Amino acid sequence: MELPFLRSTGKVHREIDVHENDNEFLVNAELPGLNKDQINIDVRDNALIISGETKKDQKYEKGKTLIQERSYGSFTRSISLPPNVKAEDITAKFEDGLLELKLPKSAPTGKKITIE
């Protein structure tokens, strides 16, 4: 399998790992500071799209920030899906800031051609 095409848009960049084994593709995305209600996962046009938004805590709106290393804002990550992914069977789990997606592979299809 060739490395899937990754695309990232938005103000914030989120880290993603994609692994492949015989039965499935595994996608892990680091999404610290979010809860599962702030994450959207869609499959459109043969692409897996993960999006969301990290908002700055309102308690920091007054005063001034001296150091800011965390990123806030919207993000979108798009991964082109290979044709052998069973999109209807994709599962997602989110725990401790890590989103784990399992993308099962479909059985190889083919047809034996009989010579007349």
TrEMBL record:
Keyword vocabulary terms for this entry: Stress response
SUPFAM superfamilies in UniProt: HSP20-like chaperones (SSF49764)
Coiled-coil segments: none
CDD domains named among the record's database cross-references: ACD_sHsps-like
PROSITE patterns per UniProt: SHSP (PS01031)
Residue stretches making up the SHSP domain: 7-116
Family per record: Belongs to the small heat shock protein (HSP20) family.
Name of the featured protein: HSP20-like chaperone
